[in-house]
C-alpha cells in the first residue's frame, strides 16, 4: 500500500515519496491512488530500517498519538528507547510515514 503520509495535504511538508510496483519513484506530487485501492502507488523499498551501530538504528513507523492528528505527526521523527529484552537500552529513531488508524493511542507500529 501507499503510505498515508505520501498523500498531499497530510502535513505542512511535501508528501513522502511513493513508488510504482517495480519500486520506481513516482513524480506525481503524491496524487496516484494507492495500490491497495486499485491504483499503482506503493511504499518504496527505501522505507526499511538500518543500523548505524550496535546501539542506534533508524527506521519508519505508522504512528497514532493521543491529542494529535496526522498533520502533527506525519514526517515527524521520534527517538524510541527499548526498555526490556535483548534490545534493552538501544535506540531506534523513526520517521512517521504512515498513520495508525487501527492502532491505540500512543502507539508506534514499526516497519521492519
TrEMBL record:
Alphabetized GO MF terms: cellulase activity
Domain of life: Eukaryota
UniProt key word Nucleotide-binding: no
Gene Ontology BP annotations: cellulose catabolic process
Domain Glycosyl hydrolases family 45 active site: 1-112
Listed transmembrane segments: none
Catalytic reactions of this protein: Endohydrolysis of (1->4)-beta-D-glucosidic linkages in cellulose, lichenin and cereal beta-D-glucans
A Pfam family annotated for this UniProt entry: Glyco_hydro_45
Keywords, sorted A to Z: Carbohydrate metabolism, Cellulose degradation, Glycosidase, Hydrolase, Polysaccharide degradation
EC number per UniProt: 3.2.1.4
Gene3D superfamilies: RlpA-like domain
Protein family membership: Belongs to the glycosyl hydrolase 45 (cellulase K) family.
Name of the protein in question: cellulase
Species, as recorded: Bursaphelenchus parvispicularis
Amino acid at each position: 500500500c501507499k503510505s498515508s503520509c505520501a498523500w498531499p495535504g497530510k502535513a505542512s511538508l511535501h508528501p513522502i515519496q511513493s513508488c510504482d510496483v517495480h519500486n520506481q519513484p513516482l513524480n506525481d506530487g503524491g496524487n496516484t491512488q494507492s495500490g491497495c485501492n486499485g491504483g499503482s502507488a506503493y511504499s518504496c523499498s527505501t522505507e526499511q530500517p538500518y543500523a548505524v551501530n550496535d546501539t542506534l538504528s533508524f527506521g519508519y513507523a505508522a504512528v497514532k498519538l493521543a491529542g494529535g492528528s496526522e498533520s502533527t505527526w506525519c514526517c515527524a521523527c521520534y527517538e524510541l528507547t527499548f526498555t526490556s529484552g535483548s534490545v534493552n537500552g538501544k535506540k531506534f529513531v523513526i520517521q512517521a510515514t504512515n498513520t495508525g488508524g487501527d492502532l491505540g493511542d500512543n502507539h508506534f507500529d514499526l516497519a521492519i
